[in-house]
Design brief:
This protein has two domains: 32 residues; 97 residues, 3-Layer(aba) Sandwich (Oxidized Rhodanese, domain 1). It is built from six helices and five strands, in the order ααβαβαββαβα. With 141 residues, the protein is of the alpha/beta class. It starts with a helix and ends in an 8-residue tail after the last helix.
């Protein structure tokens, strides 16, 4: 125990960085679980699309969308979501899956949709990158 205390005192900068990163990691994990936004892996998303006719909203820009997107996805770039919210009214009662390249933009958009009254909002965990990694097909526009 004495050596540990000595290490912390002698290397307080490293210890502070480590502690900060650890707190950020725990905060992120807890926020994900407590935030109430379900995150689906590619196979879970496929089941929701096939079984419950879930709508997919791709939040990437038009150029990225054209290179490859989930079949029948609607392209609404994240920066345009607020302005184009009226286009999504017809989806209010359906399950909605939000996707971006790797996930973070979709989480923020999911929170916004929840605030707007969409009850069944999900995020594609890992985004389109996870979809590609799972070897699942992408449609090209």
């Amino acid at each position: 125990m004495q050596q540990f205390i000595e290490f912390v005192v002698n290397h307080w900068v490293l210890w502070s960085l480590f502690t900060g990163l650890l707190v950020a990691l725990v905060w992120n994990l807890l926020a994900e679980r407590m935030g109430g936004i379900p995150q689906l892996g590619p196979l879970e998303a496929t089941r929701l699309i096939n079984d419950e006719d879930a709508a997919v909203i791709d939040l990437r820009g038009e150029a990225a969308f054209r290179k490859g997107h989930l079949l029948n996805a609607i392209n609404i770039p994240a920066g345009e979501l607020e302005r184009r919210m009226n286009e999504l009214e017809r989806l209010r009662e359906k399950p909605v899956i939000l996707s971006c390249e790797t996930g973070p933009a979709a989480i923020a958009a999911a929170r916004r949709l929840r605030q707007a009254g969409f009850a069944r909002v999900h995020v594609l965990r890992g985004g389109i990158a996870a979809w590609r990694s799972a070897g699942l097909p992408l449609a090209k526009a």
